[in-house]
Amino acid sequence: MIRSMITCFDIGGTAIKCAVATADGKISELHRVPTPTKDFGAFTDAMRTLIVAGGLSRGVAISIAGVIDPDDGRIKCANIPCIDGRTLAADLTAAFGLPVWIINDADSFALAEAHAGAGRGHPTVFGLILGTGVGGGLVIGGRLISGPGGFAGEWGHGPVAAQFAGTPPQSIPRYRCGCGQTGCLDTVGSARGMERLHLALHQSPMDSREIIAAWQAGDASAERTISCFIDLLSGPLAMLVNTVGASILPVGGGLANSAPLIARLDQAVRAAILRKTGAPIIVPGQSGVEPGLIGAAWLGLEKLGSAHV
Description:
The chain is an alpha/beta fold. The chain has nine helices and 14 strands. The strands form four sheets. A five-stranded mixed sheet has the order 3-2-1-4-7, with helices on both faces. Strands 10-9-8-13-14 form a five-stranded mixed sheet. Strand 2 (15-22) and strand 3 (27-34) form a beta hairpin. Helix 6 (208-216) crosses helix 7 (220-244). The mean pLDDT is 90.
């Protein structure tokens, strides 16, 4: 009999992805179903069906695009209204009759990369998310670092975005962030941020993928946008590396799909940090299988006392 089998989920606003994880190192993906976003009963029913399909489970581990307050267990999750503000772990534990553990999706990515991706063998790993938003997670000695309110690794927030970037320096607008502040890195360092920059610099709306493609093709206006984008991110990232001592920063999110963009960011950050190294430290994520499922699996099996995923 397998003593430590859990059901793990990666839940976003569009889909619920499910897998079974066992302590012998296997993660077997099951199914994915649409996420019921407005009906909590339908949300729990969808998960319950997948738990039953996976077989005998000792617990449920969930990676989700939200933040759990460790003081009261309530989740802040804008893209799934039916769970926003709930004590989600407690509510799901009562619904399933199984222990439930929840991890933020950026933290889950960081755990996956630390144990099964680019961070293997590194004592301190900072997982970067550069996608629709800017986020991250910090893993030291194989363990996720959290903080009051569940906020740790959220380097994308705080009014620290530079007001000038590029060569020669270009004035950068201060954008209002979804967190309520003005001037967060999230507003200029994400895929949407790159699009805002391009529009402000050239009065020409372009998708981030189009901007990157144009840049790689040698387009001067796209080069200007990428230059400013790299300037805005590299300084804060260099300070982050100097502060936490991370030796590797795997990148997830849509912008990680551009290896040349990540390589240019890496070059700029390595030029600005105190520890000089010829080896890349900012690299595309390598965890392979859905990192949300890997991170959730690692968390759940660790909670059950298992040594390895």
